[in-house]
Amino acid sequence: MIHAYAAFEAGKPLQPYEYDPGVLGSNEVEIDVDFCGICHSDVSMVENEWGISQFPLVPGHEVVGTIAAKGQSVTHLEVGDQVGLGWHAGYCMTCSDCLSGDHNMCANAEGTIVSHHGGFADKVRAQATTVLKLPEGLDLESAGPLFCGGITVFNPLIQFNIKPTDSVAVIGIGGLGHMALQFFNAWGCQVTAFTSSEAKTKEALELGAHQTINSRDSDALEAAAGQFDLVLSTVNVKLDWNKYIETLKTRGRLHLVGATLEPLDLQLFPMLMGQRSVSASPVGSPANIARMLEFAARHDIKPIIEKFRLDQVNEAFEHLKSGQARYRIVLTN
What we know:
Blueprint: E1 2-6, E2 15-19, E3 28-38, H1 40-46, E4 63-70, E5 82-85, E6 88-90, H2 96-99, E7 110-111, E8 123-127, E9 131-133, H3 140-143, H4 149-159, E10 167-171, H5 177-187, E11 190-195, H6 201-207, E12 211-214, H7 218-223, E13 228-233, H8 241-245, E14 248-256, H9 268-274, E15 277-280, H10 286-299, E16 305-309, H11 313-321, E17 328-332
Parallel strand pairs: 10-11, 10-13, 11-12, 13-14, 14-15, 16-17
Antiparallel strand pairs: 1-2, 3-4, 3-8, 3-17, 4-5, 5-9, 6-7
Helix pairs in contact: 4-5
C-alpha cells in the first residue's frame, strides 16, 4: 500500500489517503519519496482551476527519491539509484513527437498528477522513461523544483538557441524567475530582472541579474526599448504585454512560461515591423531535463527553498497561496 495525502474535493484541505498501486508494470519504477516540491500547478489542480482534476487527487510532481523497485524491462535504472520525477509520469513512445525526442509535447502523455497519483506520499510510481538519475554534486533537498520550475525556464535556452552573447530579461522574481536568473547568468547572457518589488532588487542582483528595471515605472520600460533578444515572463497575471514587446530587439521573442489564464491583448504592428515573436512552452523532454540537471550541478544552481514535513502539507499549501514563500516549498519524508 502507498500512504499519501490527497484532496477529495476541489479546494478542500488534503487528507491522509491509502491506495493499492497494483502490480508494478514491466516498464515502471517505484520510488521511495525523500523530498517533493510544491508547485503552483499543484494548487491549481487541487482547486481544479483548469477543469481537468479528478478526485481523490494526490498532488506532487517535483519528486526526489530512491528507486525501490523496477520492472523487468527497465535497464537504465537500478534499485538504490537516486532519481527525480517531474510533470510527466508516462509517454506514449510511439507518436511523432516522442520519436523526435519531444516527449514533453506528446498529446497522450500522462501527467504525474493528472489521472495519476503524485508524490505527496511515501512512494510514487512512473514509467521509467520519465525518471532521471541525479548527477553527482546536485543538492538533493532542493533538486525537486528543478524537475518542473527549473526545466520550464531552462528549456527555452535550448529550444530557441539562446547564445551567451544575447541579452535576456526575466519578468517576475518568484518561484520560476529566481531560477531563470541563475540559469541565464551561468549561460553567459547579459541578464535583466523586471520586478515590481523594490525589496527584491538586491536579491535579483545576487541571483544573477546584472541590472533591474522597475516594471511599474513606465519611463524605465520605455527607456529599455530594443534591448533584449529574449524576455521571459514567469508571472501568471495579466500585464501590458505590448510594453514588453517594445523592449525586444529585431527578431526578439517574448516567451511566456507563467500560466496566465487571461487572453493576451497584442498589437500587431510592433511585432510585424520588428519581426518579433510571442510564444510559450511547457516543461521539457527527458533529454533536456538531463542536460538541465548536469548544468545545474556544474554551476551549483539551486532553487531557494523552505522545508515542511509531509504531514504539514496543508500548512505548506497556505504558505504558498499567501505569496510569502521564498521561493519554493519542499516537503520532506
